[in-house]
Amino acid sequence: MNTLPRLLVTVGEPAGIGPDICLQLATHPLPAAVILLGDLHCLRSRAMILGLPVRLEPWQEGDPWPELEPDVLRVLDIPLLHSCQPGHLDPANAPAVLRSLDKALDLLRVGMADALITAPVHKGIINDAGIPFTGHTEYLAASCGQNEVVMLLAGRGLRVALATTHLPLAAVPSAITRGGLERTLRILQAALIQDFALAAPRILVAGLNPHAGEGGHLGHEETDIIIPVIHALQQEGMRVSGPWPADTLFTPRLLEDADAVLAMYHDQGLPVLKYHAFGEAVNITLGLPIVRTSVDHGTALDVAGTGRAQGESLLHALDAATEIVRNRHMNRP
């Protein structure tokens, strides 16, 4: 691409550290043109609280995309219903959080932007507002009409995808099916090729049960579901292996020969990834018709407005989105 990618950044939960880390973008060299989506008054108030010398300029749909300027950020104003105080959640502001996502999707659909980067939202307060919500991944998938998407976190050379996402642990075994697992691996494979420019990616698949089921003595999901899917995809030439016991899968000897790991559930794979790269990792949604990346952390209400928020993950999310946009552009016929 000869021009800078155009990135939309949603501010997320206004009472959390989303405004803090978004404002910090003005103090760093950016890889792309950026528009923030959030409440302009809230951002200006937070900048004053933090003592950040940021100039926040309104941007409206139809305006030209801005050039990069030090200490300047453009904001598409999504007004909150109530004024916001750092660290104090208000369910009345939850609809505005989702409106910012909806507006970003509208702009992406008509080609006015290239990618979406999301600061963290607070799932609980959105549900307290009477809006069913399980997370960005599921919300964006439904909004884009996609039945199957995959959550991938990447950082410091490690990529971990999930076969299931935000489910109670008791619901995980029944959610792992042959068809679902096969679709997940195909989406992961396609993304590694298209978005990460890997010609023949190597994927390690974790087992669900301890010791990957111990030959059926510690569970049957491996023998009944995971192994048949792996064998079928291997017959097609996919470089996928497993199921590997999760307690030994994340070791240097195995990881040095892998481009990604597929974990069966959220807390099987992400604790390892976050121990390895917390604060630098990026959450990427695979299988969407848009490019979406996000931070690897939550709203951190206790840190909001204190000046202690660390924005490195958001910067890495911008870098990852820029790389994916460029890779997709290169792979166009």
UniProtKB/TrEMBL annotation:
Cofactor note: Binds 1 divalent metal cation per subunit. Can use ions such as Zn(2+), Mg(2+) or Co(2+).
InterPro entries (alphabetical): PdxA (IPR037510), PdxA_fam (IPR005255)
Cofactor(s) required for function per UniProt: Zn(2+); Mg(2+); Co(2+)
EC number: 1.1.1.262
Cellular component, GO annotation: cytoplasm
Function in brief: Catalyzes the NAD(P)-dependent oxidation of 4-(phosphooxy)-L-threonine (HTP) into 2-amino-3-oxo-4-(phosphooxy)butyric acid which spontaneously decarboxylates to form 3-amino-2-oxopropyl phosphate (AHAP).
Family, as annotated: Belongs to the PdxA family.
Name by which UniProt lists this protein: 4-hydroxythreonine-4-phosphate dehydrogenase
Organism: Acidithiobacillus thiooxidans
Gene of this entry: pdxA
